[in-house]
Amino acid sequence: MSTLQEAPSTDDVLAITEDVWRSLVGEDEGLVPAPPAPGPYDTASPWSATVTVSGGWHGSITVELGDDLARSLTRRMLAMTEDEALEDADLADAVGELVNMVGGSLKSILPGPSALSLPTVAAGRAAFGTETVEAARLDAHWREHALRVSVHLPTNPPA
Amino acid sequence: MRALIIDDSRTMRSILRRIVTGVGFETAEAGDGQEALERMEDGFVPDVCLVDWNMPVMDGYTFVTRVRDNPEWRNVTLMMVTTESEHAQIVRALAAGAHEYVIKPFTPEAIVEKLDLLGLIARESV
Questions:
Q1: Three-class DSSP category at A154
Q2: Model confidence band, residue A132 (pLDDT cutoffs 50, 70, 90)
Q3: Which residues of B touch A114 (CB under 8 A)?
Q4: In the predicted model, is pLDDT for residue B49 greater than 80?
Q5: Cα(B108)–Cα(A158) distance, rounded to whole angstroms?
């Protein structure tokens, strides 16, 4: 029998993601929430990053964004100009830190005590297991680039 | 003043480096607690360590306990800078010897204010 746990609301995810985004990118241009897009995150050359939470609450938090947005975010975070070359390792590190901060902040509003995993980052769209269910999803834009943050719960969390 | 920035994210180290060099610190960096201990054993004894909690190899909490176990490093100020925001974990870190605790996301002003409260910033740099 599945026993789904408490999940953060999309408003919670939005508020936390906006805070994190503001701290990383600056105050000048915030995220703009978008109507939920159906289906998997769909963009060319996506990046995805996930952290898992285990303990008083079990679940995962995933961020997905396109290569253009990942590059803009990384340049902002590293204070690099458009002329400076970025390597995949730079993007992976920046996207990993983004999900780490979003996931850590979400963990703080969920039942605990829980542990936050180190981020796993992929140059590609996130894939979710059949034994998880999406509990919250935020679609947003920054400078016309799409960003998705989703929260997944296991259908059968550990007792 | 010298700051040792300890975080497994190069991006976060870069952000923190810009903040603390902006108020006059000389910096060094480490990607985990073990590497930070090695930097200190090799002679870079900082005035303050900015310490992430969740890191591979050696986490920030273990690093804090190891620093506090060494009397030669009793004057090193330890500031946790982490997403770990559960009350029990904050209490645990402070009990282990951390002096300050900053939760990510943070503003540059929050970091500078904490360093100032700890008496680590020259007045002309604030």
A1: strand
A2: very high
A3: 86
A4: yes
A5: 39
- What is the gyration radius of the CA atoms in chain B, in angstroms? 13
Q: What single string gives the DSSP state of each residue in A98-109?
A: HHHHHHHHHHTT
* Cis peptide bond upstream of A46, omega within 30: no
Could you tell me which residues are beta bridge partners of residue A142?
A145
Query: Above 60 in pLDDT, residue B81?
Result: yes
Write phi, then psi, for A4 (nearest 5 degrees): -70, 140
Question: What is the span of the domain harbouring residue B84?
Answer: 2-125
Find chain A residues with C-beta within 8 A of B82's C-beta. 104
Residue A148 has which token pair?
Answer: 């998705």
The angle subtended at Cα A151 by Cα A145 and Cα A153, nearest 5°, is 155
Interface size, chain A vs chain B, as Cβ–Cβ contacts under 8 Å: 65
pLDDT higher than threshold 90 for residue A38: no
**Percent helix, percent strand, percent coil in chain A, to nearest 5:** 30, 30, 40
| Residue of A23, A113, A118 lying closest to B106 (CB–CB) | A23
Contact across the interface for A93 and B106, Cβ inside 8 Å = no
Nearest CA in chain A to B14: A78
The Cα diameter of chain A in Å comes to 55
DSSP string, A108-127: TTSSSSEEEPPPEEESS---
B116 Cα distance to chain centroid: 14
Taking residue B115's Cβ as centre, other Cβ atoms within 10 Å add up to 27
Q: Residue B73's domain is classified under what CATH number? A: 3.40.50.2300
Q: Which two tokens stand for residue A52?
A: 């898992």
Domain count, chain B: 1
Check CB contact under 8 Å for B14 and A103.
no
**Strand-pair category, B48-51 with B2-6:** parallel
